[in-house]
Design goal:
- With 92 residues, this protein is α+β, with helices and mostly antiparallel strands.
- It is built from 1 helix and 3 strands, in the order αβββ.
């Protein structure tokens, strides 16, 4: 599951652009930080559930995080980085 959060940004030319803003920038930033913190906690729980699990992965490229790792997508649509080399890439 993937979630994205963004700070509110008014859109000129929309009815809402004419509404009086009753929330300060500081309140918006605070709310965003709280929501982002909760989101990161959920992400961490989800990712920790994959530690030490064995997954089928389509090897796609060398990892951008490490020269000694490869990267690919699992069958559950997770990006996975793991030890390996270019010999793991499928030959086309």
């Amino acid at each position: 599951m993937r979630f994205n959060i963004f700070k509110y940004s008014e859109r000129k030319g929309t009815p809402a652009a004419n509404f009086e803003d009753d929330v300060t920038r500081e309140q918006k930033a605070d709310r965003f930080e709280k929501l982002d913190s909760v989101h990161r906690q959920f992400q961490k729980q989800i990712h920790e559930g994959y530690v030490e699990r064995e997954l089928n992965v389509l090897v796609e490229r060398q990892s951008s995080k490490s020269a000694t790792d490869m990267s690919g997508h699992s069958t559950c649509h997770k990006v996975v980085n793991f030890p390996g080399d270019e010999s793991m890439l499928a030959q086309s």
